[in-house]
Amino acid sequence: MEDINFSNNSKEKILGKIEKAKIYAFSVDLYKSLQDKIFQYSKKIDEEQLGEKMTNYYKSEIKKFEKIIENSSAHFDTLFDFKIALESLNIKKENVNDILAHENAHANKLEQLGGKHGGYEIIFLKTEKGFSIIPRNCSFYPKEWSEEKYIDVVKQVVKAPDEYGNSMSPDDIDKLNYLEGLKKK
What we know:
Elements (H helix, E strand, L loop, with lengths): L7 H16 L2 E2 H20 L4 H20 L1 E4 L2 H10 L4 H20 L3 E12 L2 E11 L6 H17 L6 H14 L2
Parallel strand pairs: 1-3
Antiparallel strand pairs: 2-3, 3-4
Helix pairs in contact: 1-4, 2-3, 4-5, 5-6, 6-7
């Protein structure tokens, strides 16, 4: 069997994305705060009749928070590049395989249900010992879907790792709880 010829140019691009994301890395506390604000503002938009001005304000704030997170993220279009990136971070092989299985479960379920998978990301956060990472997949949903269909599909995508023999992450569980709350409105 022949080894896959992986060009140094491709690996250099992957490493470049990682180094750029690390430049913009921020603290775990700030990440939690941004995620909290995104959650709170999304909930306000979903549950309250705010009027156009306030809705637009909250949407623009969410975009700002998401941009901060995006800047500290390295994006990879393929599972192979994502794997190379994870391996370059000296993550144990069994942990790399677990991350790949988990994120790919989300991606597979998304595409089965009619969404579009847009690759994988690694968010870099600063810690006392260097960096921590949060791997995730990028999901896109058709705008023409009803809110009910969107919520149902996202819930299935969030639960996909359990279905595929992996387990849901704490972020998955938080998102599922949020979606369950929306369904009850």
